[in-house]
Amino acid sequence: xxxxxxxLRAELETAAPGTLEDVEALRIKYLSxxxxxxxxxxxxxxxxxxxxxxxxxxxxxxxxxATERINALRDGLGQTAGSADATxxxxxxxxxxxxTRHPLSIVRxxxxxxxxxxxxxxxxxxEIEDDWHVFEALNFPPDHPARDMQxxxxxxxxxxxxxxxxxxxxQTRVMTTQKPPIRIICPGRVYRNEAISxxxxxxxxxxxxxxxxxxxxxxxxxxxxxxxxxxxxxxxTKIRLRPSYFPFTEPSAExxxxxxxxxxxxxxxxxxxxWVEILGCGMVDPNVLEACGIDSKEYxxxxxxxxxxxxxxxxYRVSDLRLFSENDARFxxxxxxxxx
Length: 340
Ligand code: DAH
Hints:
Elements (H helix, E strand, L loop, with lengths): L1 H13 L5 H12 L4 H9 L4 H38 L16 H15 L3 E2 L5 E3 H4 L19 E2 L2 E6 L4 H10 L4 E10 L11 E11 L4 H16 L5 E8 L2 E10 L16 E10 L1 H6 L8 E8 H9 L12 H5 L7
Parallel strand pairs: 1-5
Antiparallel strand pairs: 2-4, 3-4, 5-6, 6-10, 7-8, 8-9, 9-10
Helix pairs in contact: 1-4, 2-4, 3-4, 5-8, 5-10
Bound molecules: 3,4-dihydroxyphenylalanine.
3,4-dihydroxyphenylalanine binds next to strand 9 and strand 10.
């Protein structure tokens, strides 16, 4: 019997079937129910007990080898047939896995889209900026207490240069270089010297809007805010304006929207008030217009500014700010297929 096993193995080793049908014939010969290997297994029952161990092992090995060899022969022929496919230019290509858009980009693009529909264009400015554009022109004189609110990073070699603490510096750049009517938005990154935690970061993103023309009034601002809130959070959203203070706007306000998580009933997110704050705004202070060379008797305007992280948290309930800058693929994958 051992000779039979050896000769079957030798035959398999040298077998060179030319077609898939020949491979199938080989499989039938060796492995089908009435094939050589099942026949051996049958004979195995009557071998003397002392040979069982050796023969059993040899048969098992032959079976494993035959299965592997026949599969390899089949694959080899399949591949040759497959190479003809490779030149089939009508075959669909392999799928390309698209990356995901960052949630902050999704929200930024959405807000840009809203202002775009209102006729605003995008303005840009440097992140390393001089004191005049970030503070002075915006009515923050030196030693003004409002400067303390902004935990500024200064450039060590030149204390006149700072990392911008708000995108309002882009407003200054536009007002000093363009003539009204001005209708711009400035999305961008800003920096503040804060300890990094779930609720604060040393950099984040803002988006401001500025509109300056003849006869721009507070009701224009209000209407724009209403449109923005409803486009962003849905038709039923209510807005509320609370008096506030910013050096560059007078009067100034902060806008709350009805909490989009509980619908205004009161929940943990809005601390039971039914309202959440989303932006600062106001009528551009005449001092600012004058500092930038715009005649405040002829022109008036409004400005508003918001944190993109804040809006994103409200829309997608991201509870830890650090997730936005850690590049954890598990977090980013959650936004697959989400488009502005
Ligand atoms: N610059 C303000 C801040 O960073 C936000 C802001 C408030 C921007 C009112 C504005 C505005 O344009 O009108 O806190």
